[in-house]
Amino acid sequence: MTGILRYHLLSLWVRRAGTALSVVSIGMAVGVLVLVLALRDGFRASLATTGREDNMVVLRQGATSEGESLIQRHEWGTLRDYEGVAVDASGEPLATAEIYAAMNLDKEGGGSANFPVRGVMNRSFRVRDSARITAGREFVPGTTEIVVGKALVGRVKGCRLGGALEVAGRPWPVVGVMDCGGGAYDSEIWCDVEVFMQAFRRDMYGTVVLRRRDPVAPGGEDRMAMLLAEDQRIKAKTYTEPGYFRSQTRELGDALLWVSIFLAGIMSVGAAFGTAVTMLASVAERRREIGTLLALGFRPWQVVVGFVTEALVLGIAGGAFGVAIAWPVNGIATGTMNWNTFTEQNFAFRISGDVVLSAVMFSSAVGVLAGFLPALRASRVPPSVALRG
């Protein structure tokens, strides 16, 4: 069996023009798959890694996002003083009430898009502490000063330290830039919640974030979340902070997955046909060689295994080529619409180990499927006929 496998591997080099054509055709299909999966994983990673597990995001029951939630002021007072909320060194609860909305802003390169604006209390910088001020300072409460995420700098007009945004007919100066390490807050604009509510005539908050005092044991019951869900004074639903952002990725993430399957599937059909035609031509050229192998005592099933192995190698090589041509986009920043909030989310393409593994498995399957028919045809050539050419 080792001898026949060596023969098939050497034949790939001898017929390197056909080998290269098959590798490129499979690689192009794989490249498309890798690009869309990298887009999906980058989007998911930018949201799912945001925040702390001991922060609880509290929304109104029935709301699917912060933009849909409404929490009245007296409910905020109840939540702030709720049993189990952590306090800081001065005894103040680590809790904050916020409001979230989309604002249409002009882009630097032309056009406009909806970007998320979060009205926050200054305490939000202590509670949502995955967002850190890296340039400038926090806004002064009661003023129209704003802090912007680093991903918006150079992307949205006015979003730079010392710049200003036109909001409600007047300039709102940018006094700080925050960094969330690639998370969701890098794409947000933060301002004073009371000023925001007054400017846009809102009278209720949308979100409350609480730092829990006691951690939840792995696999244990989250008693605080259960109490909040059952408390008729509030009628709330809760998430962990990362859990909330993960919930916001599902629709677009699933859509991108199906898009990648659809596009790669169409291209893989062409790649499989091209590889199959190349291998069928190779079988026709190698009739004498196949006949010799059979005459030497190799079984038909061994011939099948040999040709399928040859096709598998083509598939793996095509997968490696596809990953290689897509690799330059890894880490490149881009943006897309978050379908849950209808705001633009900035993130970077992310070619992870899972993406590479999926690409190689996909290309291997294409190679094997493309090689099976030629392998079967080769195994059915009678040795006497094959040796006559």
Shape: elongated
Query: Distance between termini?
Result: 24 Å
Mean pLDDT: 82
Give the structural class.
alpha+beta
How much strand? 15-25%
The number of helices is 12
Main pleated-sheet profile? 10 strands, mixed
Radius of gyration: 29 Å
Secondary-structure element string: HHEHEEHEEEEEHEHEHHHHEEHH
How many domains? The number is 2
Question: Percent range for helical residues?
Answer: 40-55%
pLDDT < 50 runs, ≥5 residues: none
Secondary structure blueprint with pairings:
Layout lengths: L1 H13 L1 H33 L6 E6 L12 H8 L14 E12 L5 E9 L3 H4 L4 E5 L9 E4 L14 E4 L2 E10 L9 E4 H7 L7 E5 L11 H8 L5 E5 H7 L2 H36 L1 H9 L4 H27 L6 E6 L4 E6 L4 H27 L3 H5 L2
Parallel strand pairs: 3-8, 5-7
Antiparallel strand pairs: 1-9, 1-10, 2-3, 2-9, 4-7, 5-8, 6-7, 11-12
